[in-house]
Amino acid sequence: MVKGIVEKALSGGTINTEEISLLFEVPLFSYDSSLIQAAARQMCEKTSNGFAEVHAQVGLDIARCPRNCLFCSFAACNGVFSENVDLPVEDVVNRACDFENDGANAIYLMTTARYPFEKFIEVAKEVRKSLRSDTMLVANIDDFSEKQAVQLKDTGFSGIYHALRLGEGKDTSIPPAKRLQTFRNAKEAGLLLGTCVEPIGPEHGINELVEKTIITREAKPVFSGGMRRIPIPNTEMEKYGIVSEARMAHILAAIRLATGYDIPGNCTHEPNIVGVAAGANLIWAETGSNPRDTEKDTEGKRGLTVQQCREIFREAEWHVLSGPSKFFNTKS
Ligand code: SF4
Question: What pLDDT score does 332 carry?
Answer without folding.
Answer: 58
